[in-house]
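An example makes the point: we print one protein in full, the chain in one-letter code, the fold tokenised, without further comment:
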Amino acid sequence: MTTPDLLYSEVEEDLRANVRRLLRDRCDWTAVLARCETDEPYDLALWRTLAGELGLAALLVPDEFGGAGASARELSVVAEEIGASVAPVPLLSNVLTTAALVCCADQPRIREILPQLADGSQLGTVAVGLTTVPYGAFPQSVKADGATLTGAVSAVVDLEVADYVVVPAADADGAALYLVDTSVSGVSRTATTPLDLTRRFGTLTLDGAVGERIAAGADAERFLRRALVTAAGLLAAEQVGLAQRCLDATVDYAKTRYQFGRQIGSFQAVKHRLADLWAGVSSARAVARNAADALARGDDETELAVAIAQAYCSDLVVLAAEEHLQLHGGIGMTWEHPAHLYLGRAKSSQLTFGSADVHRQRIGELADLPMP
């Protein structure tokens, strides 16, 4: 068994500094809130800067396909910063799509698309519901008759901005993955009113849409599972970044807010709550880093590491957002404060890729623990 490396490397810290600087300049919470109130909730200009100029969308793409040939370790640092700023960019769908398509890179069409995803000029997503569990059965809601696809998938993340969709479907040979251009006839997208204003999803309806089969049988099942596990592991890093932001903002507020002539941070009850939250965020960072390191190594315990990270981080981030709101008092309940942005992202991410209970059950299966 390889000993995990939970420390950040110098390269990773440099990457963090660059991403944080850009997000501080172009994506403070007031800008996020203002954008969420418009008809264009996604900041695609920011995404193109992150993807094209900083090369962040290319981190999981091999060098030979126009990528950076990096790993989940580097991308997890980016996810932390995206989570901290609740940036309205399609990072999660990019991770899902590139992780799935890299597995199919032996095909000419995929080799053509990967560089476009890597430089941010094209966007993609995978047609699975946001709450899809990485360890579940292969989706069967879309049927394929030759290259023609029929069916619907709800709660597809970042669907409204996707140029391509990887669609899991059942065809004559069983499980299969199809690549669909969203501009072709027979494809319709319906937006869903979201809890999280910074990450949208919608329903994909296919009515005789033509797709290209890129994987079939056991390969299709394995590739989809790998994409979901990768995205779930990196979501844990995003949750850590958001939880840390909630903690930092609450500590700063507790130092400046006075009641009864004293800083509220001097009250013992507040101290205890912040100390408990600090311990929780520290533990979450450890399990999320372990998941990112396991994904980078690709060892046999990757799925267990990701399940542990999601089981812990998905609940912890909601606790952090709730403490942030409650300890800010009345101002935290206003629309003009970022607390609702943090809580919305935290709650939606808690449900993404399955609840903590589902991941705990998977941990029991993988670690051969007795279940209640």
In short: The beta strands are 124-126, 142-145, 148-157, 164-171, 174-181, 187-191, 201-210, 212-216, 258-259, 262-263. The longest helix spans residues 217-256. The two ends are 29 Å apart (CA to CA).
